[in-house]
Amino acid sequence: MAFAALRRALGPGNNGLLGGAGLRFMSTPRVQDRIINVIAVDEDGIRHRIKGLIGHNLMEALKLSGFESEARHPSSDRLDACSGNCEVTIANEWLDKVPERTEDELEVLRDVTKRVTKNHRLGCQIQLTKDLDGMVVSKVEEKPFEIP
């Protein structure tokens, strides 16, 4: 009875919440629809399936999964706050799907590694998108000054 009253109040032909076929629900994207998988390869060559949320950066996904530590990679997506410790290597087949790195990102990479290749990226600068579902990344070897 309440639906009929609401339908009358909205008027005929209304395309809002109530349509001619009955109640329709307006929905927002479910979290499940925003999840992508990233394959992260550790120093021993073991592959780990990491879940990430579209819109977050790669480093956030790696830390939330436990693949990377918060202590080594403090949270920030600001490049001016980046220490370069979030450096990752992107598999060749994914390079054309990852947005190009900026000159500022390249400058940070040059500060932390001797030889920058096209595969080196800062994980904090790669925003996850549906196109990156299945992407393969690997940890960069620890630098001598990082080894305890």
Automatic annotation (TrEMBL):
Keywords associated with the record: 2Fe-2S, Iron, Iron-sulfur, Metal-binding
GO molecular function: 2 iron, 2 sulfur cluster binding; metal ion binding
Keyword Iron set for record: yes
Any GO BP: P450-containing electron transport chain
Annotated InterPro entries: 2Fe-2S_ferredoxin-like_sf, Adrenodoxin-like, Beta-grasp_dom_sf
Name assigned to this protein: Ferredoxin
Organism, scientific name: Klebsormidium nitens
Organism lineage: Eukaryota, Viridiplantae, Streptophyta, Klebsormidiophyceae, Klebsormidiales
